[in-house]
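Changelog note: in this version the structure field was regenerated for every chain. One regenerated record is shown below for reference.
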Amino acid sequence: MKNTLPTLLFVVFASTAVENRLHAQVPPGQGVRFSQSNQAPGIEFIDVIGGSGVAVPVTGLPANRRDFNGGILDPVTGDLYAVGSDNVGTAGVLFRIELNGNAVQALIPLVDTGSTYSLSSSVFDRDGNIFIHDLETIWRVDRNSGALTLWDTQVAGQGAWNSLTVDRERNLMWTVSCSTAGLPGSVIQEYDLELGPGPGTVIFDGLANGWPTCPTGIDHDENGVLYVSTFLFSGDVAALFQYDTNNGTAMPVPGGPNHSLNDVWYDRQHGHLHMTGAITSTAWERLDLSTGTLTLIQSGFGGFFTPVTSAIALNDTLHRTTMFPHQASSAIGATIEVAAHGLAGEQAAVLMTSLNGSPLQPPRILASGSCDDGGYFTLTKSFAPGALPANTTVGITAGVLDSVSGLKILGEEKILTILP
């Protein structure tokens, strides 16, 4: 794990027009389901907020471009990024899908890895680059140039990669692998993305600890707990596990389903787990982690491979302020590193909203900067030793500087405590 001073990730939206566009496509908290077998529709929106499970198909995908193993939603533009399965029209390709409501406006092959394998999943890193992978290789796609960088290749004894997830606050990535012929799997690897390409560190050997042999999906919460979905074989004890990166403990998730799963997603708005089944159990389910209550959201397709729900995604990053609780010291000073995304060219800000419990009106702007063409920026605010006395509490949130309405605060306040 990295030992750095506080790192913040702010998700910033300042334009009503863009928010309306997002609401018309994938409203905050709503889901996206990706399916394979090259059958219509390939991609659907699922009502997971109201829990009705109503599926709205994405229309306009060509007949040979409906075979997807996974994807993600860009919260800035509303575009989808989807990775292809082993169909001749999609194998090895990362697509950007521009939408108007639920209709495809453009289907753009963003990068072709040349892999003959299916790509399995895709995630954003802190700076908006996209990590993709197949069974044996991980690449990073530069968000500006589309350049493909080889990040790591799998080695014997660690299986075949099935999924990955990135903690954008800490810039860490975790992968999980499935057993293949001659290659043991159920291994979790960790990557510090600030160190650049190279092999990850094995932090957990699932087979040695009684895990199922074929994990299928992985996600994380804000506290560094990993959630892993698995394909069940005879003798496997659970389909959903959790691994705590802070203390190395692993256990089945209480209340989890007892059938094979293809993917898992941690809802950062509500603290729920969302899962999709595999083979004949293609249902979308939601697990309330606080109560252990499992709720059926959508019954799935039914039948056998007709088609398979390969992956799910949620629009769960709107109007959030997240702070990873690294220590900040009065004696050595404090540094707040900010990674934010909003709209290209707009001014975003890091705001101090309270000091020792007393609100600041108006909030104090600690740092600001312009978003680049992709809507992203990073900046750092440093405090000299002694500038913030020990035991000071500081309220931090994100904001934007709107030329019409002035300062607009987004997200909830997060409290930073300055240690001696």
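Spot check on this record: The helical segments are 16-25. DSSP finds one helix and 33 strands in the chain.
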